[in-house]
Records
---
Amino acid sequence: MRTNNDHRSGCPINLTLEVVGDRWSLLVIRDMMFGNRRHFRELLAKSEEGIASNILADRLKRLFEQGIVSRADDPSHKQKAIYSLTEKGIELLPVLAQMSNWGLKHLPVSEELAIRARLLREGGPKLWAEFMHELRATHLGVPLPPRRRPGQSVAERLEAAYAAIMTQQPSNRAGGEQA
Amino acid sequence: MRTNNDHRSGCPINLTLEVVGDRWSLLVIRDMMFGNRRHFRELLAKSEEGIASNILADRLKRLFEQGIVSRADDPSHKQKAIYSLTEKGIELLPVLAQMSNWGLKHLPVSEELAIRARLLREGGPKLWAEFMHELRATHLGVPLPPRRRPGQSVAERLEAAYAAIMTQQPSNRAGGEQA
DNA sequence: AAAAACCGGTTGTCCTATGCAAGCGGTTTT
DNA sequence: AAAACCGCTTGCATAGGACAACCGGTTTTT
């Protein structure tokens, strides 16, 4: 059933849209990537957009079937499942980064969330690659490469930037900015 | 109504998904970009995936309202409308390019469509920028920059690559390839 | 030991979005 | 004068998403 060739077309963009071209899949992946949400309830409750539990369950199942996330039992809790990104999932980062860039420039992004988008934009593909290495460490258990890193990890820098703005007044919205 | 702030969240990725996060919008944009489809019937009939006319009409309306495409009367035909990409629309190219990359690597892309994806991948952001300049010329009427170009335009190269493979046997499908 | 909270989901219901085929009034081509 | 073409619209059936309530089991708190 799943291995059927019932695709609308063999175009790479279309095939990608058939997998993640809906309103929720990429948000789940975003939360796993940038928010390090690894449990069902975490993804459910801390979702900025308020995903419904049946939708989340369905998306996790589909992403699992597509080999984009993996699922493992949490040894510390018999009922807990740990969701991880696979290499295939990690490699969606450039797609998310470009969407983030475009949204930052053209849509009314809230200030507290814009800061991370700017960091990602300024860092460019080099920063993305560094972050992907970190994701391979946290999600795949791959040891980090030698890394002659100047300071914190990318994850820490993103977190710090977000925390910094959140100490100030919340919900300061801005329109799309010009590069 | 349309200017309401009724967004699920101010996250740039979410906002982008609210605009183009469905199964058709980006395909319409893709066809306008890479296929130079500018008329309704063209987008309808030459759609690789077979979009329905009501969906196409709805998407064009929404993309117009979002400022991603513009609409003009065709002087040669009273009933014809010419759809063009705006700057905002043209700047979706990097998003499409990354999706193309990801699909090429991880999904069963058909060989005849893979060739263009590879060209886009090999060219990288530099080629994307060049193509975006061409799009500004054809869609916005902006004259092309000086351009010290080595050979054909990007559009011509993409077209030539596609034509080359289409002279051979059709529907030769391949699985995802490794970078 | 009992109660409460938490675990990953499932079920049912309602509503919207999508898919499909047919058709519309008008314009242009044959 | 007929046929083809123009950008859509309409009606209908199905698929997907939103919402709330709930499930059996596990762990933590009292």
---
Amino acid sequence: MGSEKEFLQNYKLSDYERPSVTADVAAFMVSSGDKTDYRRNPENKLQILLIKRGGYPFKDMWALPGGFLQKGETVEECAMREIYEETDVMPVSIMPVGVFSAPDRDPRGWIISNAYVSIISEESVRQVGKDDASDAQWFSVSFERDGDIYHLNLTYGDTELKAVLAEEKSHFGRTEFRIVDSGRLAFDHASIIAEALSALRSEAKNYDTILDFLPEKFTLTAFQKVQETIMNVSVLPANFRRMVSSYVEETDEYVRGEGHRPAKLYRRKNNS
Amino acid sequence: MGSEKEFLQNYKLSDYERPSVTADVAAFMVSSGDKTDYRRNPENKLQILLIKRGGYPFKDMWALPGGFLQKGETVEECAMREIYEETDVMPVSIMPVGVFSAPDRDPRGWIISNAYVSIISEESVRQVGKDDASDAQWFSVSFERDGDIYHLNLTYGDTELKAVLAEEKSHFGRTEFRIVDSGRLAFDHASIIAEALSALRSEAKNYDTILDFLPEKFTLTAFQKVQETIMNVSVLPANFRRMVSSYVEETDEYVRGEGHRPAKLYRRKNNS
DNA sequence: CAAATAGTGTCTCTAAGACAATATCAC
DNA sequence: GTGATATTGTCTTAGAGACACTATTTG
């Protein structure tokens, strides 16, 4: 053991070239739209946080929030820090999507990206407030399959980003995507977003994952709408209630004044 | 666009310190043990490939195969290359497990590891042949839960590595493990192996994943034994057959001379 | 024949899907 | 009352688990 100490004292990491390492985060939120009818419930939208790039390369194009790994932090911490810096919200949960390390993926040089999905509850963002002049904006997401081709459409106000991707390979329940048209998204971020969505959808079968999107107290209909928005499916309310019954517990509060029967508020049951 | 070109010509990645990046691979194989009884089928064992370290740090301790990312390759390619260099076998499939980037995980300095699970079919390794004097050996794996504590036991001949881990947090179907006792495994590899096993088990519910462990032609009993070995469960043969029936198709060959009714060989059906 | 595995048929049980019916509110 | 959502109950169906039974081989 003495000689291991000795070895380490003299050790110098060799001068092989090293890559720069970044963490990029696809941060998703499910937002309830505005009420159009006093008694009809609003539609939900899946949204993703994008940042308008201020400098080269890809100046004025939209990109995922992210940044370089700093010494002394883990990659997860870096990812959480980037989201916190952009939104003032600490994400509830974060999930690795994959490593993007194609040698030519960044025109500035050898930079590999660790991609994460993060889930942010609408309530926390609402409290912080959105700045319309900011370079960080929430885009509505649609991701549709059309044969072997996938269309990823991201919209915020008049800004529409339309990326086209092709299914590359599918392994372990997740799919890799090749960019056909990056649709004004910076770097390879179109494929990162596609894989992040694919990962999110395959996880969203798990009700615990969905619960991370919700505030502390919620109605079962809100719970259901969030899952339907993420998964892009629909379930009969009666069956949904039965299936989540072991994940939630009643409170004695109700949501009133909605123009229809008030809904009981539930909270997450934190058992197994 | 002219000015982006100009920007890139003058761009130099800033002199922030960069980490070294490695890929480490938990390569698993399911081996059929030796026959003890002329008519009884042999037991199966789940095995993992470990390398005895020749130099410091952790000299003479066992570690996962892995190595530094080289310029011009992706992290996946690096992981596959490392396995190929150690076994002469190109893995059928490879799955990301996570990024291990705790600042103090490697005494040599700032080195982050991208961990992968890889699945190797016994047949391909048999053909290449094993070298008993080699520093690369297949260890039998047992990973048992005991309350909040997990015991990871790896054995090869007289060599027994006994690591103890604690469940750190469980998110998205996967669990993170904190090392209580590394059991003579180098670096943080005990926790990488634990997480790799946890990831493998959660994927092994998918029959396609299991099929990657098998040779081209196999009996349904072999198929079942491999799944039972990985998942550490048991299923009634009748039900297993029914459940995999859509994944396989018959050949007209049989395995004879086993002291009991010959089993039909099947092959993977490559549909949907 | 004995011992072992290979393979088939069928009953049961459970969880998900379908759907009908009732409850309760704001206007 | 009307129109909307909230909530409950029950029938149906698909798939997994249990288990009894038959088939086929080698020593």
